[in-house]
Amino acid sequence: MISTNCQCWKLVAQSGQTVLATDHDRPVSFRGEIYQPGLKVSTSAFRRTLVLSPEPLDLAGALEADNLSAVDLADGVWDGARVTIWRVNWADPEESDWLWSGCLSSVETEGGRFRVGLASQKSDLEKTIGRIFGRRCDADFGDARCGVTIEGAPQASCDKRFSTCRDVFENAARFRGFPHMPGNDVVISGPGEKRDGSSRGIER
């Protein structure tokens, strides 16, 4: 039986530049966009990698497109580009399955071929956005946020407690933690009870 399935890749760079490519030998019209031939990736290898190790994916193949050049790849233009991959029936594009979404985490080129590392959207959940509220200081000792000069005392160290910052380094004004944040036991405290986390021996 002859398969009419193909892969359609949509790459969107952080600049907004877009590449639409398919491994079919003719252009494929899908979701109002035209995917041009030029993608050559082993479908079986892609499926096997997807099942055994969902992220990251490492693929090797060839990719030719009007908006994609080896120079741009080498210069990092496509680093972090968003990638969406579909399996499409080129004979009836309404029949399609979403395969994968994520971003390009690494790109290497050699002799017109490429090797890309793909990180799935789940990797976004591993990123720390903003600050984490905690009693300890989250600055690196001696950096600009900390403000303590350690050039003359290379052996100096800090345990990131407020009491150390205040009493040892006289740097309380630049402490980057939340030493007065109530502890979990405040939730279960009754009228007149003083529970601020000190019952767990938390130092400030």
Secondary-structure element sequence? EEEEEHEHEEEH
Computed CA radius of gyration, to the nearest angstrom: 27 Å
Strand residue percentage: 25-35%
Q: Mean of the pLDDT scores?
A: 78
Shape: elongated
Query: Number of helical runs?
Result: 3
State the helical fraction: 10-25%
| Largest β-sheet summary | 9 strands, mixed
- According to DSSP, the number of beta strands is 9
What report would you give on this structure?
By secondary structure, the chain is mainly beta. It is built from three helices and nine strands, in the order E-E-E-E-E-H-E-H-E-E-E-H. The protein has helices at 43-52, 70-74, 162-167; strands at residues 5-12, 18-22, 28-30, 33-37, 39-41, 57-63, 82-89, 96-110, 113-120. Strands 3-4-2-1-7-8-9-6-5 form a nine-stranded mixed β-sheet. The N and C termini lie far apart (72 Å).
Write the topology of this structure:
Blueprint: E1 5-12, E2 18-22, E3 28-30, E4 33-37, E5 39-41, H1 43-52, E6 57-63, H2 70-74, E7 82-89, E8 96-110, E9 113-120, H3 162-167
Parallel strand pairs: 2-4
Antiparallel strand pairs: 1-2, 1-7, 3-4, 5-6, 6-9, 7-8, 8-9
